[in-house]
Design goal:
alpha+beta, NADH Oxidase, 14% strand, binds flavin mononucleotide
Length: 209
């Protein structure tokens, strides 16, 4: 599949049909997000797939995005609220096992990462973690489009309410951004044939000489 064609095909869907995304496709999208780049590779966010329809309904009560409950699936991108040395140690352990390296050989890398997170406030760390989540969001949108699965990225929600209903605080997470997955209702979605509004490429990107 040609990525540019897939990106032209996709749009932020407002009205979903009842058709469900299969578990195989859901897994493929999650795998693509998991393969996304992240700063230093630390992946400071998690994805919660909200299945329970009653919770989905409650989550959609506040705000203006019915896709939260109407789409086939809802992914909540949640960043780690308080990055700590423990997260870094877990990452070092993962790298040591997967790459077959002695843990001590990663000491310098570990020190740099620890200095980075301890040199910032927890709020700054959360913002940094959220930026990594957005990279995953972009990958998820593109991966779904390649499978001709529709998506809606959404910031229009109440993060505190989501954190409470999904017990994210207890998991050390805070919700950042949402991705609805499903299939467009081509008859009811007013945006189904709307041309894309984008800058001319020459205005968007400039070549320096
Ligand atoms: C981070 C982010 C947040 C967004 N939040 C919402 C939202 O809350 N509700 C919605 O319907 N669309 C939302 N959108 C969709 C944008 O409005 C849409 O991507 C943009 O208008 C470009 O149109 P297109 O994606 O259909 O090509 C969001 C998009 C992004 C990337």
């Amino acid at each position: 599949m040609n990525l540019t064609e897939s990106l032209k095909w996709r749009y932020a869907v407002k009205k979903y049909s009842d058709k469900k995304v299969t578990d195989v496709d859901l897994r493929a999208i999650l795998e693509a997000v998991n393969l996304s780049a992240s700063s230093a590779g630390i992946q400071p966010y998690r994805i919660i797939v909200v299945g329970n329809p009653e919770i989905r309904k409650k989550l959609s009560e506040e705000g203006y995005n019915p896709q939260i409950s109407e789409a086939s699936h809802l992914l909540v991108f949640a960043a780690i609220a308080n990055l700590s040395e423990t997260h870094i140690d877990e990452y070092m352990h993962r790298m040591s096992v997967i790459r077959g390296l002695p843990l001590e050989s990663l000491d310098n890398f570990r020190k740099i990462l620890v200095a980075n997170i301890t040199g910032r406030t927890q709020e700054e760390n959360f913002i940094w973690a959220s930026k990594q989540a957005y990279i995953g969001l972009g990958t998820g949108i593109a991966a779904a489009a390649e499978l001709r699965i529709d998506t809606t990225p959404m910031e229009g929600f109440n993060p505190d309410r989501f954190d409470e209903l999904l017990a994210l605080k207890e998991q050390g997470l805070k919700s950042v951004v949402l991705l609805a997955l499903g299939y467009r209702d081509a008859e009811k979605d007013p945006f189904v044939n709307a041309p894309k509004v984008r800058l001319a490429l020459e205005s968007f990107s400039k070549l320096t000489t």
